[in-house]
Amino acid sequence: NNHPSGSGPDDDGDDDDEAVDPSTGRKLFGRVYNVYDPKEETSRPTIIRPARLWTSTLKRTIDTARHVPHPVLELRGGGVWHQMLPRVYRNLDEIFAGDYEGMTYDDIEANFGGESILRKKDKLGYRYPRGESYLDLIARLDPLMHELESYVEPLLIVSHQATLRIVYSYLVGLPRAEAPKIEIPLHTVIKLCWDGWQSFSEVRFRFHDDESRGSDILVSQSDGQQFL
Questions:
Q1: pLDDT tens per residue across span 7-23
Q2: Any idea of the CA torsion for 228, 144, 78, 48, to the nearest 10 degrees?
Q3: How far is CA 117 from the centre of its chain?
C-alpha cells in the first residue's frame, strides 16, 4: 500500500485546494513539484496529486521506471503519500513465447514455418509451444484490471507490447479479437482519461529518439520482443 492505514488520497480534494490544509490554510509539503510539459518542452512548478506506478518483473520495465521521481506528499486528510512508489507484478510480464522465447518472427518463420502459419490464422488463440497465447494473457491480467478499477488515483503502467495491447483494449472497450492487431508504439506514453461513465479521451506523448533530437535523449528502437 502506498499510504498508511486509515488515510489516503480519496478525500484529498481537487485542483488548487490539494496544496493547502483546509483547516489552517497552511501549504502542504511536497505538493508543488517541477513537472515537465511535453507540449512546451519545459518544466514548471505544478500542483501534483497522488498517483501510482506499476511495472512488470522484467528488467527493462524496472529500468525505465527508475527515472520516475518519488517525492513524499502530505495529504489533506493527514498522513503522507509516497508518490509513484513502484509495485511490481508478474501479471504485467510480456507474453511468454515458450520454446521461441527471444526469437523474431523472421526466425520463427524460417525455422518453424508450420507454427508461423497457425499463428497467422488465429493470433488471439495461438499458444506458443510451452508458452502462452493472448487468451492466456487476458486471464492473467484479469485480476489486475479489477484492482485498477478500484483506484481513484492516476496510474502509470510500464509494461510490454502484447501486455499493453490487452490493457489498452480493455480500457477503451475494444473486442478482444482486435487486441493482437493494435499498434503500441515504442517510446510513447499513452494517456487515457475516463470518468467511469461516458467521457473518454486519449493523448499520446512521443519521446524523441536519437535521430530526431541528436544526442539529447538516446533510446533503443527495440524492446527485445516488439513483434510478439
A1: 345 445 444 566 777 66
A2: 30
A3: 31
CA distances (Å), origin 30, targets 26, 47, 82, 172, 191? 12, 9, 10, 33, 24
Q: Is 159 helix (H, G, I), strand (E, B) or coil?
A: coil
- SS3 state of residue 74: strand
SS3 content of the chain, % helix, strand, coil (to 5): 35, 20, 45
Alpha carbons 209 and 71: distance in angstroms, whole number: 28
SS3 assignment, position 45: strand
What distances in angstroms separate CA 15 from CA 24, 47, 206, one per listed residue? Answer: 18, 8, 26
Predicted confidence at residue 34, as pLDDT, reads: 81
Q: How confident is the model at residue 5 (pLDDT cuts 50, 70, 90)?
A: very low
Give the separation between CA 47 and CA 37, rounded to whole angstroms: 13
Reported as half-sphere exposure (CB side, CA atoms, 13 A), residue 63 has a value of: 7
Indicate the helix (H) or strand (E) that contains 191: strand 188-194
Q: Taking the CB of residue 145, how many other CB atoms lie within 10 A of it?
A: 14
The SS3 assignment for 23 reads: coil
Condensed to tens digits (0 to 9), the pLDDT of residues 167-177 reads 999 999 999 99
CA 30 to CA 71: how far, in whole Å? 7
Instruction: Give the span between the Cα atoms of 92 and 56, in whole angstroms.
Output: 5
The three three-digit cell numbers of residue 130, written as one number = 510451452
Residue range 142-155, pLDDT digits in tens:
999 999 999 999 99
Q: What percent of the chain has pLDDT over 90?
A: 50
- Of 98, 99, 100, 169, which is closest to residue 138 (Cα–Cα)? 169
